[in-house]
From TrEMBL:
This is sulfate adenylyltransferase. Its EC number is 2.7.7.4. GO terms for biological process: sulfur compound metabolic process. Residues 1-213 form the Tr-type G domain. The keyword Nucleotidyltransferase applies. Gene3D superfamilies: P-loop containing nucleotide triphosphate hydrolases, Translation factors. It holds the Pfam family GTP_EFTU. Keywords: ATP-binding, GTP-binding, Nucleotide-binding, Nucleotidyltransferase, Transferase. InterPro entries: CysN_GTP-bd (IPR041757), CysN_II (IPR044138), CysN_NoDQ_III (IPR044139), G_TR_CS (IPR031157), GTP-eEF1A_C (IPR054696), P-loop_NTPase (IPR027417), SO4_adenylTrfase_lsu (IPR011779), T_Tr_GTP-bd_dom (IPR000795).
Length: 413
């Protein structure tokens, strides 16, 4: 059974938490004790109604204010697929949290209030989805019950959003009219939208093809751990454990270990402790080589025929997540997969207007939630791909070495 990671995004009060609560409730994915607790806390319990948003609004501040602040992760499964949901904040103040949740997502659900249509936050979240190259976009037009399930309202929003999607070069967009509160077109088709001939949201999530999103041509295997049991029966065993980000690996493949550029040949591939003919993305595996090479955590094993970048000067587009402003000369740790090196910000080339995608070359400072293009100088070479070419190996984070906190998410160029 495969896994779909998706994120919900939208403006404040568009109904993201309610939508996720409805998905969990209607698929019987809520434990009995949790359901009893939510029933006690629901504002409308006297009327027998459940406040579905409470299933995801886990922080006390979220429940008191009625908004999502942090990214809430929920897990559920149906007979067809497993799911990890990231419920992202809708307020502009928490754009960084939305970026964090979207970075690993296969699909994004963007909620639009049927009464308001496409607004500034809709554009902002769509631009972020475009920047992060999330493969699939689902626009759920929520609160259709408040516009009498008007087909005209639905068609107007579809037309408005489609124009923006064309500008952002978002190609895979699906539109679904819903009422998260009442469950229309969430799990079951709604009798209130006889004019809508498309899928329900759950059916789309269960059947959308995500296997085509994986690159099987370029093979990338970052080493996470070197296995050396050094026991009597495994005295000479040396295995390199990690996750296949893309491509495939099998016995006999000629590979290169980066950033050092040393060549070797695969002696064996193991998955779940069993030797197999081939490992492929996104499996976790152990690779054993014919040569004893000094390979460390963070080194990258690639097919010898593959081409990628190895450099100490890296251009990147980053979303700044720290309250302290970013300035040229700041020193951080750059982490690409399991590789972590010291680095310094050499140049800030421009700031990106997330509402228009315009490049602003004149600005006072880079602050919280700003998106900028920078030049990073690392203490040692890094092997990486352009985010536009291979998303799986083109992302990174900046870490404050003193506070040990993430200060930026990066898309490497």
């Amino acid at each position: 059974m495969d896994l779909l990671r998706f994120i919900t995004a939208g403006s404040v009060d568009d109904g993201k938490s309610t939508l996720i609560g409805r998905l969990l409730y209607d698929t019987d994915s809520i434990k009995v004790d949790q359901l009893e607790t939510i029933l006690k806390q629901s504002k409308n319990k006297s009327e027998g109604e459940i406040d579905l948003a409470l299933f995801t609004d886990g922080l006390r501040a979220e429940r008191e204010q009625g908004i999502t602040i942090d990214v809430a992760y929920k897990y559920f499964a149906t007979e067809k697929r497993k799911f990890i949901i990231a419920d992202a904040p809708g307020h502009i103040q928490y754009t960084r949290n939305m970026v964090t949740g979207a970075s690993n997502s296969d699909l994004i659900i963007i909620l639009v209030d049927a009464r308001l249509g496409v607004i500034e936050q809709t554009r902002r979240h769509s631009i972020i989805a475009s920047l992060l190259q999330i493969p699939h976009v689902v626009v759920t037009i929520n609160k259709m019950d408040m516009v009498n399930f008007s087909e005209e309202v639905y068609n107007t929003i579809v037309a408005d959003y489609s124009k923006m999607a064309d500008m952002l070069k978002i190609t895979d967009v699906t539109f679904i009219p819903i009422s998260a509160l009442n469950g229309d077109n969430i799990v079951n088709p709604s009798i209130n939208t006889p004019w809508y001939k498309g899928e329900t949201l759950l059916n789309l999530l269960e059947t959308i093809n995500i296997s085509n999103d994986i690159n099987y041509e370029e093979s990338r295997f970052p080493v996470q751990f070197v296995i050396r049991p050094q026991s009597e029966d495994l005295h000479d065993y040396r295995g390199y454990a990690g996750k296949v980000l893309s491509g495939t690996y099998k016995k006999g493949d000629v590979v290169t270990i980066l950033p050092d550029g040393i060549d070797s040949t695969i002696k064996a591939v193991e998955v779940h402790g069993i030797e197999v003919d081939e490992a492929f993305a996104p499996q976790s595996a152990v690779i054993r080589l014919t040569d004893d090479i000094d390979i460390n955590r963070g080194d990258l094993i690639v097919k010898k025929s593959n081409i990628l970048k190895v450099s100490q000067e890296i251009e990147a587009t980053l979303c700044w997540m720290d309250n302290k402003p970013l300035v040229v000369g700041n020193k951080y740790l750059l982490q690409v997969q399991s590789k972590r090196v010291r680095c310094v910000i050499k140049e800030i080339n421009y700031k990106l207007d997330v509402n228009t995608l315009e490049k602003q070359e004149q600005f006072d400072q880079v602050g919280l939630n700003d998106v900028v293009h920078v030049l990073i100088k690392t203490a040692s070479p890094i092997a990486y791909d352009s985010y536009n070419t291979l998303r799986a190996n083109g992302g990174a984070i900046l870490i404050d070495e003193t506070a040990h906190t993430t200060v930026a998410g990066c898309m490497l160029s």
